[in-house]
Amino acid sequence: MANISAKDVKELREKTGVGMMECKxxxxxxxxxxxxxxxxLRERGLAAAQKKASRIAAxxxxxxxxxxxxxxxxxxxxxxxxxxxxxxxxxxxFVEGVAKTILATDPADVEVLKEAKFDGTDRTVTETLNxxxxxxxxxMKVRRFERMEGIVSTYIHAGGSVGVMVxxxxxxxxxxxxxxxxxxxxxxxxxxxxMSPAYLDQASVPADVVEHEKSILAAQMKEDPKMASKPExxxxxxxxxxMGKYYKENCLVxxxxxxxxxxxxxxxxxxxxxxxxxxxxxxxxxxxxxxKGDGLEKREENFAEEIAKQING
Length: 313
Known about the structure:
The chain is of the alpha+beta class.
């Protein structure tokens, strides 16, 4: 049997929101396999779809930057040691300069970006960053970036904790310069920030993900005494029907629009209503949602020790 650590239990709890003892039991059943443990909990109706850990410890900022004239955009994350530095004007100027450098030089990755000439200077991004580290006295690094092209709307949440960029196909591109389109684009970007959709639409969901979700639904129904006696093929058909809920929760255009004060219905319905108002056709074609520090964690020995005491004591 795998050795189940307090850290494993903590990670599973953060990903599922399920209590510690249930998480420990799931990990034991799954022989320490995190993905199998998540499925174990979901099959028993104890956890929703896998969530990213909510305890984000890394500081810094995520900045979405769009060059409207060039129709090019980028979302970039630059990390710092403290939140205080992330509010520093020099730091923010550097982050914006990094975004402009990415759009100007089109680097393949962060390593290539480091050697590119920083926006408007003869010094590299690395040299410019080192100057800033010396001036501020805190370690910083450019962590990642993603780009989009075309007609794009952006949204930055809570001073850079989440950055969003969403792209649109607009039949009459002149309508993208209107106040109505600008408001719509920002609202959709805010939706992405708030609801964190995993996919754009049903067609974007990989086939293996669909089959996996159906198997979870079928397993859940087997746990229900009223459903357990039904034939496998009947359960499979019911599971397929229940996938509608999964799509509404995980696909942007099918999610319920959060600004119910201005539109009641799906995100697609909201976009279509604005398109009709403007006399054109508008379609979401993709998005980027980047959360500051996502996947990074500081050391939390005391928290892990507390969990260990509760599990073993």
